[in-house]
Amino acid sequence: MSAHCQLTGRRPGFGNAISHSHRRTRRRFDPNIQRKRYWLASEGRHVRLTLSAAGIKTVDTIGIEAAAARIRARGEKV
Fold first, then answer.
1. Domain contains 34
2. Is 71 helix (H, G, I), strand (E, B) or coil?
3. Is residue 7 situated within a structural domain?
4. Domain count of the fold of the chain
5. Which of 5, 69, 70, 75 is the most exposed place for a label (fewest CB within 10 A)?
6. Does 65 fall in a domain?
7. Which domain range does residue 37 map to?
């Protein structure tokens, strides 16, 4: 599963891990990605989305129909 949100487009960030002696090594900051299943009433089926925690909150606010429209507008499959 790729670590990106279908709704917000959030992807991993990259930076440095800094040790106590201040040596730097590359690290990856992954978003909090969850797989969530929603009922899409307009199509009469369930859809399984890969969303970040912020994306789940957005779906709760705007509704799954509007979220599905945004995902399709970004060119992703629902």
1. yes
2. helix
3. no
4. 1
5. 75
6. yes
7. 13-74
The residue with tokens 């369930």 is: 46
Which pLDDT score is estimated for 29?
96
C-alpha 16/C-alpha 54 separation (Å) is 24
- Cα–Cα distance for residue pair 72/21, rounded to 1 Å: 47
Cα–Cα distances (Å) from 57 to 2, 5, 20, in that order, read 20, 12, 36
Task: Report how far residue 40's alpha carbon sits from residue 65's, in angstroms, rounded to the nearest whole number.
Answer: 7
pTM for this entry: 0.86
Other C-beta atoms within 10 Å of 11: how many? 15
Q: Which two tokens stand for residue 61?
A: 């606010």
Q: For residue 5, is it within any domain?
A: no
Sheet strands (E) in the chain: 13-18, 24-29, 33-40, 45-52
Q: How far is the C-alpha of 15 from the C-alpha of 24, rounded, in Å?
A: 9
